[in-house]
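DM from R.C. (forwarded with permission)

"hey, sorry to bug you on a friday — could you get me a structure for this? deadline for the figure draft is monday and I only need the backbone to look sensible"
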Amino acid sequence: MKGTIYVLLSAVCFSTGGVLIKSIPWSSITIQGIRSIFSFMLIASYMVITKRKFVWNKTVLFGAVCNTAMALTFVSTAANAIVLQFTEPIFVILLMWALYKKKPKKAAVVACAVVFAGILCFFLDSLSAGGMAGNLLAVFSGFTYALVMMMKSFPGADFESSLLASHVISLSIGLPSFLGETDHSAKAWICIILLGVIQFGLSYIFLSRGLDRVSPVTASLTSTLEPILNPILVAIFCGETIGRTAVIGAVLVIGAAACYNVYEAAHKD
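My reply, with the result:
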């Protein structure tokens, strides 16, 4: 239960991205690079407080590349294709099966199907409008997101070290783009700081603590609350509306994730 709560808190923090990104008049590459500065500072402070040492090896580098790819593709993906990023639980189940011979439980497969159906309902009107390139980018983002969820299961991995390295890579990519930005209003800087600290830093700290306690499959299914919360927050703060089909989708996602977590807790060995 404690691990699930941490993952839920992580999803809530991640879901603030929609509102904050809409408020920043910069390119997606610039946003990704500059928010990484503030996330780096928070995660580095967390490592110092918890007495974690920075680790560097091939697995950490692989994790950093996966996280950079996930973050860049996510912030660059059109809203009408974002649903496809949350094929992530499907990829987690398939990768756990392929890499570790962990055959998925029927409950996980059913929950995954219901969750994805719910997300499709939420974005039903806009999914078909996305171009093929955007849809493929979103699916690739889902694949890399699955690898991030599984990072702690890889031999020699260190989740926090991969995050720090990922932020350095993102800053290196985004800095040249930042130099060309002209709008440096107080609002833009407040939003980018909040984006780095809450949406990109605190979310990863909660996710790390959650992954210490629950499986990647459980974490990935629980994290699907994010694409539901994201447009709800946008609707609240930006005045956008949510249709009846979207409400049904939200109920399916939240219900399936909750039922799966209850089932897992009841059938713990």
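R.C.: lifesaver. The chain is about 75% helix and 0% strand.
me: no worries. The two ends are 15 Å apart (CA to CA).
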